[in-house]
Amino acid sequence: MSRDRQPLKILHIDPEEGWGGGECQVLGLVTSLSARGHENHLLCHPRGALLGEAQARKIATLPIVVCNDVDFRPIFWLRRLIRAQGYDIVHFHTKRAHALSLGLSRMHADLRYVVTRRMDYPVKRNWYARWLYNRKVDGVVAISRKIAEVLVEGGVRREKVRVIHSGIDPAPFQRRVEARAGSEEKVIGTVAVLEERKGHRFLLEAAALLKAQGRRVTYRIAGEGSQREALQTMVRELGLQEEVVFLGFVSDIPQFLSSVDIFVLPSVYEGLGIAILEAMAAGKPVVASRTGGIPELLTDQVTGLLVPPKDPPALARAIAQLLSQNGLLRLMGDKGRAEVLDHFTMEQMAKKNEDHYYELRHAAPDGDSHRAGG
Q1: 29 with 133, same domain?
Q2: Taking a C-beta distance cutoff of 8 angstroms, is the pair 98, 132 a contact?
Q3: What's the rounded Cα separation, in Å, for the pair 162 and 306?
Q4: Are residues 121 and 184 in the same domain?
Q5: Residue 313 is part of which domain span?
Q6: 103-118 confidence digits (pLDDT tens)
Q7: Distance (Å, rounded) from C-alpha 154 to C-alpha 267?
Q8: How many domains, the chain?
Q9: Is residue 32 located within the same domain as residue 55?
Q10: Which residue of 120, 186, 264, 329 could cross-link 292, Cys pair, CB 3.0 to 4.6 Å?
Q11: What is the pTM of this model?
């Protein structure tokens, strides 16, 4: 590295106990940054899946429990840690982590604070949000242009926002890309937490429409969540017991994707959609909602099909279009895989975050956190 790009010492904070796309991204980012020569420490929940996954990769971890957005009990300990370790970057990866910035200040002149925003719901236009984003951090990473727009509309200064799309490691998905070759019965798959925002009910309604048209399709739904019982009830009411399989939590996503022909993500809203990138890397055509950051990943009629959210008839038509054209399945799958390799790898994401860190360190400190002490 050049003299002005010496290895950095970075503290990452993700106190969530559950495991989701955000935690997967944090793990991948820390792993990639470590491979690029930086020293990374990760604060995470002592009972969370992220802790075990990080330790398995030999990442330095420390436990932290943050019960809610106004739980400032860890602040004094966190201040001592930052001062003692002399971190160059403190990166908040969740809303709960970001709230901790209210109790922090600049421990030394070169310290910079960064937050990543992953959700596209509106930012409240109040003093609290403006203070968190405009005064307490030096940089704001949005994982999609849509999220960047939401931030600016919510009062976050445009110059503070940097769009860095999430990325994946495509290698595990490419190894199994041909697994479905020659299969006659079509399989639709989806991977998402079973929550209302993911729109599973609209996929089930579309499945009922396709069944009424005489389409023979199996639907494999991977994921757990609060809506599982309601969705299973809906399957019975629609008479789809023979077509729909709930798999629960699936750890081997590449293997799951090798068992499907078409990937569907019918989200009501979506920050970006890592599951879409994984499906594209596996060479699967995608049908997804035109919402949030999804159109930034998926090119309509090229790597998949975009449909309006909460529109079962449109979803059914898109699935039927792909079911009736085997050649289109392969063509879209190939183009999707190439798109991921060109633009959405974990290594590319880590490099962009690294560049952002250096730019912030070379610029004058911003916001309230420039004051030393704390």
Answers
A1: yes
A2: yes
A3: 26
A4: no
A5: 171-343
A6: 998 888 899 999 999 9
A7: 23
A8: 2
A9: yes
A10: 120
A11: 0.88
